[in-house]
Write a structure and sequence with these properties.
Structural class: alpha/beta
CATH superfamily of the largest domain: FAD/NAD(P)-binding domain
Distance between the termini: 31 Å
Oligomer: single chain
CATH architecture of the largest domain: 3-Layer(bba) Sandwich
Strand order of the largest sheet: 8-7-16-17-18-15-19
Largest sheet: 7 strands, mixed
Helix content: 25-40%
CATH class of the largest domain: Alpha Beta
Number of strands: 20
Number of helices: 15
Shape: globular
CATH topology of the largest domain: FAD/NAD(P)-binding domain
Radius of gyration: 22 Å
Length: about 500
């Protein structure tokens, strides 16, 4: 078996974290090779094709292009221009049949929050604090690529890069979103339910367990610029892939890394080509893993494997997802939001603990995703991977019950859906996600935020092994396209510091 040694850096996985790292490194002169197990690049930040239609990997929004946000930084550094169109409003939230419109304009949203939840004076004070903290978090995050610090020089960089006036946000790392809601006298059952379900999208946990320093950014993301990518998020990934190719790099799909070893300053990666018996080997002095920390123990050896097994034990609980892709005739109004969160009241989605569903729709007229007169919808909710992996003989019945429940919910609560004809529908469970994007137990969305975990207690992007780095939603700062892009920026900084 011939070994390919013609690379400076090999990246395992082509999620947005790995793609961001790859683009930045390629732009700085590194020869980059990205190895992706799936048939299409992008991981959870991508799209897929079925019956001539394009569906997103899951219901999702796209932010991070405003000044001092990660995708803005990526474009500034590389000159890449990701194709996108701004959408407004960002989202509609349906609570007990009432629509709360998540306006981008902050004053307009504060007025809407007062209308829907009452107590407008307290709502205004609460949201102004959330905006203040969120703005500072975005600004500070880009200034601190050494976070979490791993050395004395990292600590020094933190002290020299930050302004003392920004230190006011640090106590909010130790205060939950629920505590701040109580402080501002907005912690009513109705508003708490709204905040909890919004945080489940962004932080994977609810108000009582989400630190306000993260929660503030999580609940205000609709008040920044939100975008739609014509043709689906796969076009964002393809744009970055093409940039890497122009810079001399490469991305191989259906190339699953099955073994990583280290000897004499070189990492050797063995891969399996699709489902065939073909095996390839690649070598490089630097490896960046864009796969979850839970997967790393299975493809490494010795002390490396033990390190990742121990790290994984810190995060024994994480969410999987139910995702339903639906194509319907276009019976929706021109002014309808593209993103909808539907609260389920006292119900929950069968075989899950989800009390809401999240819907993302293709844009009217986007013929790259659906023919004229049709729309594609992606519907997602949280689900326990452990539960679905233990269903055994009841799996097909449970999967159908979930699909039927979601269709009934959309018919009764999503305007225009009841009048449409369903042309195609398919449902994915955590088992599907494991088989599709190779994430262990189908865990997607990263590690839930937790009051029990300090800012410093994250799996660091720099491992104890020279030249081996981590990127993606199981390292700091966690989930979401902006979050994993920031992790890519941070790893790029580490590699420049340590290897250039």
């Amino acid at each position: 078996m011939q070994i390919n040694k013609d690379n400076d850096v090999i990246i395992i996985g082509s999620g947005m974290g790995g793609m961001s790292t790859g683009a930045l490194l390629a732009n700085s002169g590194f020869k980059v090779l990205i190895l992706e197990a799936a048939a299409l690049p992008g991981g959870c930040s991508s799209s897929y094709y079925r019956r001539g239609l394009t569906f997103e990997s899951g219901a999702t929004t796209l932010i991070g292009f405003d000044e001092n946000q990660p995708l803005w930084k990526l474009e500034q550094e590389t000159g890449i221009r990701i194709p996108r169109e701004e959408i407004s409003p960002s989202m509609s939230v349906w609570i007990e049949g009432e629509q709360a419109t998540r306006y981008k304009d902050r004053d307009e949203w504060i007025k809407e929050a007062g209308r829907v939840f009452g107590n407008p004076t307290a709502q205004k004070a609460f949201w102004e604090k959330a905006f203040q903290v969120a703005d500072t978090v975005w600004d500070v995050s880009l200034k601190n690529p050494s976070f979490p610090p791993q050395s004395i020089s990292d600590w020094g960089q933190l002290f020299t890069s930050n302004h003392p006036k920004d230190a006011y946000v640090l106590p909010y790392a130790f205060k939950s979103m629920r505590e701040i809601m109580q402080r501002f006298n907005v912690d009513t059952p109705r508003f708490r339910r709204f905040v909890d379900e919004q945080l489940m999208i962004t932080a994977q946990s609810k108000s009582e367990d989400t630190p306000f320093i993260f929660g503030a950014a999580g609940i205000t993301y609709t008040n920044y610029s939100n975008y739609y990518v014509p043709g689906g998020l796969i076009e964002m990934i393809n744009t970055i892939r093409d940039f890497i190719h122009k810079k001399g790099g490469a991305l191989y799909t259906r190339e699953r890394v099955t073994d990583v070893s280290f000897s004499n300053g070189w990492y050797t990666l063995e891969t399996q080509r699709g489902k065939s018996s073909i095996r390839n080997k690649y070598q490089a002095p630097i490896v960046v893993s864009n796969i979850p920390v839970w997967n790393m123990g299975e493809i490494t050896r010795g002390t490396m494997s033990q390190y990742f097994v121990n790290e994984s034990k810190k995060y024994d609980k994480a969410w999987g997802a139910i995702s339903v892709g639906i194509a319907t005739t276009d019976t929706y109004t021109d002014s309808m939001s593209l993103h909808h969160q539907i609260h389920l009241g006292e119900e929950h989605v069968p075989y899950t603990n989800s009390e809401s569903i999240f819907v993302s729709m293709s844009q009217k007229g986007d013929t790259q995703r659906a023919p004229n007169g049709f729309r594609t919808l992606n519907v997602s909710c949280h689900a326990s991977p452990e539960y679905w992996f233990n269903l055994q003989g009841e799996y097909d019945v449970a999967k159908q019950e979930v699909e039927d429940y979601i269709v009934r919910t959309l018919q009764s609560k999503l305007p225009g859906f009841a009048a449409s004809n369903i042309e195609t529908i398919h449902t994915a469970t955590p088992i599907t996600w494991q088989n599709w994007v190779y994430r262990k137990k189908g865990r997607v969305g990263g590690i839930p935020q937790s009051m029990a975990r300090s800012l410093l207690n994250w799996t660091p992007n720099q491992t104890p092994f020279t030249g081996l780095y981590l990127v993606g939603d199981t390292t700091y700062p966690g989930q979401g396209i902006p979050g994993v892009t920031l992790s890519g920026i941070n790893v790029y900084w580490r590699i420049l510091k340590n290897h250039k």
